[in-house]
Write a structure and sequence with these properties.
Elements: E1 10-11, H1 16-22, H2 36-39, H3 41-54, E2 58-60, H4 68-73, H5 78-98, E3 105-110, H6 131-147, E4 152-158, H7 161-171, E5 178-182, E6 184-185, E7 188-189, H8 195-199, E8 207-213, H9 220-230, E9 235-238, E10 244-246, E11 251-253, H10 260-268, E12 271-274, H11 282-293
Parallel strand pairs: 1-12, 2-3, 3-4, 4-5, 5-8, 8-9, 9-12
Antiparallel strand pairs: 6-7, 10-11
Helix pairs in contact: 3-5, 3-11, 5-6, 6-7, 10-11
Cofactor: Zn(2+)
Binding site for Zn(2+): 214, 277-278
Domain Hcy-binding: 1-292
Length: 297
């Protein structure tokens, strides 16, 4: 584990599950990419390495949709589930050895409670759970992933301010820095709260960067402007491709709209961690990396 620092713009990876699907894996599964932690770990290494090779500085682990409860449904006991959560960090580290470079950071992905339901709930929020129930769900995997020594925790695709509050409180005593990124719809969180309320979470010492992910590319710039009004901390921007997810059909619709021009705009607005999320491939990350290196082009 290195001391995570943001002293220049850093390039995030893209859609890990998207790349695994492109490699031929069927991920229509409640565990999503986390299923391959047990079934095909070498393929996860290969996908991480592809993004490093494309220009990414940070690999985000295959733990977004992983949970003790989800692994238990597959017959794994507590020790087995813990082993796979730790493996997600180990595999990202291994990819940095496969594709060595100046910076090879590992971000341990912590998705929202709704992600583990595999029904699109992370795009709605407001699950009807109390803060205590949310903390009871998140804390065990947070502790396990933090103990696996990633460089940073990625609290990502968070749709709801209340869940963000729980997560920020939970990571405060773990000794690992974290970034917090919301999924938004226009000028509000997916749960309907003003973004100013969401970005107020940046006040916590545990949060080293804050921003937006898995949202339409067009929503990023105004969200970053709202975030910049709340904090001077580094901002995070990694939207999806712009295609829409149909939860009923389990299919993506529309055309990709992510562009290098947008990445340059986000950098100018204060984003220091920039990349992509769902449907963003290594070639897209190469274009983002080149745009950040040459912001005037």
């Amino acid at each position: 584990m290195q001391e995570f620092r943001v002293d220049r713009p850093l390039v995030l990876d893209g859609g890990l599950a998207t790349e695994l699907e492109a490699m031929g894996h069927e991920l229509a599964d409640a565990l999503w990419s986390a299923r391959l932690l047990a079934d095909a770990p070498e393929e996860i290494v290969a996908a991480h390495a592809a993004f490093y090779r494309a220009g990414a500085d940070i690999a985000t682990t295959a733990s977004y949709q992983a949970s003790y409860e989800g692994f238990a449904e597959r017959g794994l006991d507590r020790a087995g589930a813990e082993r796979l959560l730790r493996r997600s960090v180990e595999l990202a580290r291994l990819a940095g050895e496969v594709e060595p470079g100046e910076n090879r950071w590992v971000a341990a992905s912590i998705g929202p409670y709704g992600a583990t339901l595999a029904d699109g709930s992370e795009y709605r929020g407001d699950y009807g759970l109390t803060k205590h129930e949310l903390r009871e769900f998140h804390m065990p995997r947070l502790e396990t992933l933090a103990d696996a020594a990633p460089d940073i925790l990625a609290l990502e695709t968070i749709p709801d301010v209340e869940e963000a509050e729980v997560l920020v409180e939970a990571v405060a005593g773990l000794g690992v820095p974290a970034w917090l990124s919301f999924t938004v719809d226009g000028d509000r969180t997916r749960a309907g709260q003003p973004l100013a309320d969401a970005f107020a979470m940046a006040g916590s010492d545990a949060i080293h960067a804050i921003g937006i992910n898995c949202s339409n590319p067009e929503d990023v710039l105004p969200a970053l402007e709202t975030a910049r009004a709340a904090t001077e901390k580094p901002l995070v921007a990694y939207p999806n491709s712009g295609e829409g997810w149909d939860a009923e059909q389990h299919a993506w619709t529309g055309d990709p709209r992510l562009s290098p021009r947008q990445a340059r705009q986000w950098r100018a607005a204060g984003a220091m961690l920039v990349g992509g999320c769902c449907r963003v491939r290594p070639e897209d990350i190469t274009a983002v990396a080149e745009a950040l290196l040459d912001p005037e082009s």
